[in-house]
Amino acid sequence: MKPVNVQTLIVSAAPAPSILVLQPIEEPSQPGKYRIVPIWVGMNEATQLGIALEKARLARPMTHDLFLDALTNLDARVDHVVINDVKGAMFFARLTLKQHDRLIDLDARPSDAIALALRQQAPIFIEEDVLERASFPYVFKNAPDAEDELADFRTFLEELAPEDFEG
Q: GO molecular-function annotation terms (predicted)?
């Protein structure tokens, strides 16, 4: 398993999917060369991920907040998330909860599992075989300038299509 960070979330207007982009925490194979894993998500999922990334607090609890509140009241918390499979453009994840010394493993959509992990600062991992099958190279020409990096990255993502993931 490799740890990953959320690189960015690109929110699109419906009916176009939004894109959650994960980046493995690893040394690049060559200077300036990295890998990314784009995951297409729906508008509702992107909204939940955006709320988690921004650490936003709303007047009333959203579904993920309710779930975490229930976990807290059961003396449990999110331990970690593993993106454990990909079939075509569909990703699969396992959400692992910890309650005292007990680990509870649940099947989950990556968007839900990651939204929960972000809210509790729990680690996110990807299986190495999934990383190999679903990642794309991303190359920095020079030391990345934040604005140039973001513009280049958006261009790269705009050119991706779900068909690129069909194997």
A: nuclease activity
Look at residue 30 in the predicted model and tell me its pLDDT. 63
Question: How many Cβ atoms sit within 10 Å of the Cβ of residue 131?
Answer: 20
H or E stretch at 91: strand 90-99
- Name 10's bridge partners: 19
Cis-peptide, bond into residue 61, ω within 30° of zero: no
Residue 66: strand, helix, or coil: helix
- What distance in Å separates the CA atoms of residue 167 and residue 152, rounded to the nearest whole number? 26
CATH superfamily, domain 2-165, is Bifunctional nuclease domain (3.10.690.10)
Tell me phi and psi for residue 120, to 5 degrees.
Answer: -110, 10
Is pTM beyond 0.85? Reply is: no
Q: What is the pLDDT of residue 78?
A: 97
**64 near 95, Cβ under 8 Å?**
no
Q: Please give the helix or strand (H or E) that residue 54 lies within, else none.
A: helix 43-54
Contact assessment for residue 37 and residue 126, using Cβ atoms and an 8 Å cutoff: yes
CB atoms within 10 A of CB 94: 18
Distance, in Å, from the CA atom of 38 to the CA atom of 20, rounded to the nearest integer, reads 6
